[in-house]
Amino acid sequence: INAYKKALEVRTRSDFPVDWADTQNNLGIAYFDRIRGDKAENLENAIAAYTQALEVRTRTDFPQNNAEILLNLGRLYQESQQFNLAYDTFKSAIATIEDLRGEIISGEESKRKQAEKWNKLFRRMVEVCLALGRETEAITYIERSKTRNLVEQIFNRDLKTIFPSNVVIQLEQLRDEIASGQNLLQTGKAENAISLAQHLQKLRQQRQKFQDEYLPIGSSFKFTSLEKIVDQETTIIEWYIATNKIFAFVIQPGGKEMRIWRSSSADFDALFDWDNKYVNDYKQKKAAWKDQLDQNLQNLAEILHLEEILNLVPSECEKLILIPHLFLHLFPLHALPVKNSYLMDLFPQGVGYVPSCQLLQQLQLRQYNDFQSLFAMQTPTEDLYEKDLGAVAAIKRQFNQSYVLKKDKAKESAIIPVTENLIQANNLFFFCHGGFNANSPLESGLQLADEVLTLADIIAHIKLENCRLVTLAACETGMIDGDNISDEYIGLPSGFLLAGSTNVVSSLWTVSATATALLMVKFYEELKHQNNIVLALQTAQKWLRDTSITDFKQWLQKSSLTFAYQSEISKYFDIIEQKNGENYQPFSLPVYWSAFCCIGKGV
Fold it and tell me: Looking at residue 419, what DSSP letter applies?
């Protein structure tokens, strides 16, 4: 503090205004962190220093620095429980940050990095809104930060199906004019930068107005939008991991009301400890992870106080949609034990997943009703030949039209560039190896005969115009970047949702080949009789979990598997039966049946 005060004798506002403002900001931080002296006086001095810094670091001249100082000032107001002042300060900072985001023309990676830097601002705003009782604003700010890039990319992809053709033309013209003008500003080629910046702001407002008439997203998304998203039999639970607490927003059927559960700071710490152990065991001690999964899920249910949250769900609710946050996406929340059962057993219409409310809103606009044609990639690598239990052949029988590429024909060059068979497919099915790359999520992918079909490839090249379901019967295909702090949902499911599918079924860990084959055959048998993809999957999971060896053998005789594969699987069960008896349920543990989940529209 003394050093900064000395510096201000030379770095005066009149001679060095920018340096003076920087020093005032640093002085504010020092007072905020100060332990000695009177706390109230320290806070008052910090506020004074930040306020002076803002006189030079204005939103017009230094928007980035202005937002940084506002974040510091708002944090000070929040921690001193001056919540109204914190709200106004954070609101101003967010407006600046969202303007800056709109100016980024260097791609999605730059937007993601900006989101990583500023996500703490949104989290603090959510906390302040809740402290003020502004609960609907809290979830609005959550939605403004969650999956922002993916929401915008899907919006741009579906532009022509959402808007009338004349509006599409105007939106595209506005997009191009804004990008061109922003490029002139960033390269210093604008003749009158101030005038051009003002003009671009008007164009952005005009574009936003057009968008909001049909689909309010981003900063325009409001809680009232949920009325069009949530039907009268569905409840949404949206988790949010804030600065030192966990929140669960329970959106009631019809979308007009919401109840909120709040954790303690001890639960917050326990969740991070639980996550670290779970992830480390999965990476380094697979056998121990497998043996402990059932107990780990029990512990997670207790940390999240799942029973307390479910008390906020109306008893008449038939369907549950889960919106996890950050690393919660990595866990089979539908398989959490609760009330002497599992979560998915409590809802007759199933438990599905979606990355955000805005994404669900967009997916509901995709009206793909047909489910007649299949496009499948089967056993592209030699080591899978012996594990192929005829699941794809059995699944093929459920469709009127099918196009199956096997073994060395199941290669990336067969689908990139996109073929007509792929464009017309209602269901895309992969029976192959998969993997998630935690160090480089865009390199996660599906191993085909010639190449790995990566997430980056899917985003860049795959276009699905009629696809209701992508099924990834492979390992780790549902995993996402759990360490990502930008609140983006980055994984293979997001790639296929962006490509055009309304649903993706994928796995959260390395799965058993036999259990997966049986699950998939049963899943598609269920899909033959109903439209609810979530319910079909979970009916198959319950069947896999609860069926005894005797019942499996009886099912085999009626299944769509060929006689040869029926015999092969029956021999597998004979070996287990000799050791455990005919009433043994070989796949009762969650590690066998709970890995797969449905992300998307659900129907």
Answer: P
272 C-beta neighbours (distance < 10 Å), count: 12
| CA gap 267, 274 in Å, rounded | 10
Q: What six digits make up the tokens of 27? A: 């002085």
Rounded to two decimals, the pTM is 0.93
Q: Of 55-69, 100-114, 493-507, which range is least confident?
A: 100-114
Tell me which residue of 365, 403, 378, 597 sits closest to 504, measured CA to CA: 597
pLDDT value at 386 more than 70: no
Which residues on adjacent β-strands are paired with residue 353?
A: 322, 599
Q: Is 227 exposed, middle or buried (0-12, 13-18, 19+ CB in 10 A)?
A: exposed
| pLDDT at 389 > cutoff 80 | no
Q: 209 vs 204, 217, 361, CA distance in Å?
A: 9, 11, 18
Spatial CB neighbours of 526, under 8 Å, sequence gap ≥ 6: 535, 536, 537, 539, 540
480: β partners: 491
Helix, strand, coil in percent for the chain, rounding step 5: 55, 10, 30
Please write the tens of the pLDDT for every residue from 106-157: 777 888 888 889 999 999 999 999 999 999 999 999 999 999 889 989 998 9
Give the Cα separation of 158 and 498 in Å (integer). Answer: 9
Q: How far is the first Cα of the chain from the last one, in angstroms, to the nearest whole number?
A: 61
Which H or E run contains 471?
strand 469-473
Contact between residue 236 and residue 253 where contact means Cβ atoms under 8 Å apart: no
Alpha carbons 176 and 169: distance in angstroms, whole number? 11
DSSP classification of residue 451: S
The neighbouring-strand residues paired with 600 are 503
DSSP assignments along 114-183, one per residue: HHHHHHHHHHHHHHHHHHTT-HHHHHHHHHHHTTHHHHHHHHHHTHHHHS-HHHHHHHHHHHHHHHHHHH
- Dist. CA 294–CA 79, nearest whole Å: 39
- What tokens were used for 378? 């089967």
